Amino acid sequence: MTALGTRRPPDAAMVRRPARVRLLWLLVLVLTLALIMLASVAFGSRTVPFSDVLAALGGAEDTLEQAAVTKRIPRTVLALVIGAALGLAGAVMQGVTRNPLADPGILGVNMGASLAVVTAVAYFGLTSPTGYVWVAMAGAAVSAVFVYTVGSLGRGGATPLKLALAGAATSAAFASLVTAVVLPRNDIAGSFRLWQIGGVGGASFERIGHVLPFLAVGCAICLLSARTLNSLALGDELAAGLGERVALARATAAVGAVVLCGAATAVAGPIGFVGLVVPHACRLLTGVDHRWLLPFSALAGAALLTAADVVGRVVARPAEVDVGIVTALIGAPFFIHIVRRQKVRAL
């Protein structure tokens, strides 16, 4: 019998959090998000005083500072919705696969969506904003199925490491194919080279309006899958014993995540690591109950991506660093840390 003094402490993510603690953290997260939103409209190549921010939010555009705030509002809204979508999709993917390394970027889902959009534009003349979203979702779905199939081959099935390796290889291959498609086409190379990195620059309420219905549907599917994901976390056999139709439940939740990834990639490009970092951080605050984890991941994803966009605008004034680069700088060390942790086999 293990001595009390040498007993391994429970994982922080596995400890059940009281409801009042979760509500407190939710309030902190909402207030943090509000401050980040305020920073997003105040900081950039031109710093805007608080008085001008309030005036611009009230509809005034009398000064350059107030006009700058007005232009930053759609960018802030886009960063919020894309960050929420990627954070929520990452939490669902980790729940569906029971894989702590699951992330739309790491598993190749975002790059599959990018390849589909670039191919459709270059060879089929795709111009419709709504068409972008449908094509991106199709590419994301095909890529997700392909990576999961490859990662499931061999002994042990779809282990986290095998899925991560399959996703990394697929992402690298798809990135090369995107470059091969874009380079000969000078008419689209300039715009797609920036889009390929991932960013929220050039946002407008019109662009947001095209993608918002798809994000709303994907978000609803994911949130409604919370109880099912809790059952799947117990293992397939026990979930089936509790009355869950395991294959259907897993497929439904995965569809919601794919819709979110495809829609987000269509409008902002392949932004990585948000779906990896956010769910792990939120588990420390909420535990593993997906009824709490999924809304927290959406809010934290919105906060992370918006903050990354602010950092990208501030560190390289008057130019800017695309948000996809900033999230990669944040997420890559975190990914290495997760891989190096002992006993990282499943959630």
TrEMBL record:
Question: Which SUPFAM superfamilies does the entry link to?
Answer: ABC transporter involved in vitamin B12 uptake, BtuC
Q: Which CDD domains match?
A: TM_ABC_iron-siderophores_like
- Which superkingdom heads the taxonomic lineage of this protein's source? Bacteria
Q: Which UniProt keywords apply?
A: Cell membrane, Membrane, Transmembrane, Transmembrane helix, Transport
TM annotation in the entry: 73-93, 105-126, 132-151, 163-183, 208-226, 247-272, 292-311, 323-340
Provide the membrane topology annotation.
Multi-pass membrane protein
**Which InterPro entries does this entry report, sorted A to Z?**
ABC_BtuC-like (IPR037294), ABC_transptr_permease_BtuC (IPR000522)
Keyword Coiled coil, does the record have it? no
Principal subcellular localization: membrane
Localization, per the record, is: Cell membrane
Would the keyword Transmembrane helix be found if you checked this record's keyword annotation?
Answer: yes
For this protein, the record's PANTHER family field holds: FE(3+) DICITRATE TRANSPORT SYSTEM PERMEASE PROTEIN FECC-RELATED (PTHR30472:SF1), FERRIC ENTEROBACTIN TRANSPORT SYSTEM PERMEASE PROTEIN (PTHR30472)
Which family does the record claim for this protein?
A: Belongs to the binding-protein-dependent transport system permease family. FecCD subfamily.
Name the UniProt record assigns to this protein: Iron ABC transporter permease
Q: Which organism is it from?
A: Streptomyces johnsoniae
